[in-house]
Amino acid sequence: MSSTDYRPDIDCLRAFAVISVIAFHYDIPPFRSGYVGVDVFFVISGFLITRIIHDEASAGTFSFAAFYRRRARRILPAAFAMLCATLVGASLILLPQETVSVAQQAVAVLTFSSNILFWSQQSYFDGAAIAKPLLHTWSLGVEEQYYVLFPALALAVFALRRAQMLAILAAACAVSFLLCVVQTRMQPAAAFYLLPARAWQLALGALLAVEALPALRSERLRIAATTLGWIALGASVNIFSPRTLYPGTAALLPCLGTAAVIWGKPALPRTVLMLARPMMAVGLWSYSLYLWHWPVVSFATAIWGPPGSAINKLALLCGCTTLALASFYLIEQPARRADWPGTARALAATGAAALAASVVMISASGFPNRFSPQQRAMADFLGYDHRDVYEEGRCFLAPGQTVEALQPACLAKGPHPNILLWGDSHAAHLAHGLKLALPQATLLRATMAQCVPYDEPGQSAACTAFNRRLPGLVRNLAPDTVILSGNWTHTAMAPAARTSLLATIRTITDAGSRVVVVGPSPQFDRALPHLLIAATRFGVTTEGHMPNLFGEVDGFLRAQLKDRPRTDYVSLLALLCPGAACILQAPDGAPIAWDQGHFTAQGSELAATGIVRGSPALSASLPDERD
């Protein structure tokens, strides 16, 4: 198979991959799991790169210099142009600390290590992905590391007998896949971002390139394989939910679907080729489309918030497509045709300019003088240190910890009334305020990140164990009241979740304690300090930035718990968003939340005061004002 053979089906696969990714990032249905497009790209890359190296090695014409020159021509010109434009955009639009972060991301892109940077930044309270305009370059980091390591290894393997070559490639694929499955459960960020757990997808393409599977001789079989592959791909973009552990075994569906399409390779009639021409064109533009789509939506979100209407999404698509076509025709294509010495000099100059600009942006702390003192003070909340306020690591546990990690002071009873706070981070962010709002009570705390106080699909084993232990603690501690709070989302309205929550409440009341369920806290479509600054910088309205979902969940919980014995329901939305507009700032001007919905200390105090006065069980704990 010649490395120069054109495969229109691969351009269609590229188009499918990039459309899936863009539709997912722009929230265009039905691509709710369109992120699988990256997996499709990896399989394609493994196939094409291996085919080139194998064919040239077999012909005795392979050259490392020529290989890397082709890769540089293909990847770097458009990437460097996007990088420079993103640095300029960051310095004009983003906040100082975000501008510094973009500069750091740019350095990682220039050193082919952006996937490692983003992996290292992962944590439960990590900043929103949309605020990182170069986040999408993590996949380029994986591919670039593959380009660096694979050619030498491939030549060594290709020098062996065919059976040995296939065995080594298959073993590498299997080992990487097993690592991916294990890491997805234990170290999900590493499985997602790093090469070792992604290598099996590239190796799958490599196995196809060396024809590990015999060619299908029957046209019917080729059509069947291709059809099944496209069906698998079509299912993969809408079958997974946000709770799906990914990549793990779930990534088999898009990867095997891609492999089936590449393996099938039916002889396409002229009519089909004509109909597929738009997809083939998108496939040719796919690299530039991928490069530009994320900075466009990232910067637009920094100004106006996530695109909510169809018109806004269409505008983003038009902007992304315009930039991508300009990139393809003015940068990608000319760079491939230009003489190499001139291209190399241009790349070196552009890379040096991007590196110098990044160093200046970091050294200048993101040019803070662009903002007023009030805006800078508000921006500081984006780096809010919540650890002491939430008692992280003491009473607020990480997802992998157990009940035994709760420090004794968290569960130390005192004079009555004793009140136990149980839930996830949306319970932990109430602890500070409740201590102040209940001065004569003893507040016990047992909270865990990503662990709502009921059984939820996809929750960790540690969370399940934590929730199984809490009823026993309730019986042993016999608190007067148990406060249940969590990040209530649409999953709370599922029949199984409702049954689990009601069973939890029944267990508590049967043990003699009262229950107070605190409804969803206000959550916004971006970090609240962002929204408040955008309102002063760009004239953006602060209304309409809370998804309707939380109002629906609030109403559902209120209805479910209305007549439950010994149970109070307190609506935070009614307290903090009494009308069309929410209370966004505390009396001292601090935002009530430092990210999309986790309270600052001031927000916690504001919310807790309303919770205590809104619950008969808790308000009975207040000192009598007549005393």
Automatic annotation (TrEMBL):
Q: Which residues cross the membrane?
A: 34-54, 75-95, 166-184, 190-209, 221-239, 245-263, 284-304, 310-331, 343-367
Record's signal peptide: none
Q: Which residues form the Acyltransferase domain?
A: 9-330
Q: Per its UniProt record, what InterPro entries does this chain match?
A: Acyl_transf_3_dom, Acyltransferase_3, SGNH
Q: Which GO terms describe its molecular function?
A: acyltransferase activity
State the UniProt keywords alphabetically.
Answer: Acyltransferase, Membrane, Transferase, Transmembrane, Transmembrane helix
Q: Which PANTHER family match?
A: ACETYLTRANSFERASE, ACYL_TRANSF_3 DOMAIN-CONTAINING PROTEIN
Q: What is this protein called?
A: Acyltransferase
**Which organism is the protein's source?**
Bradyrhizobium aeschynomenes
Q: What is the lineage of its organism?
A: Bacteria, Pseudomonadati, Pseudomonadota, Alphaproteobacteria, Hyphomicrobiales
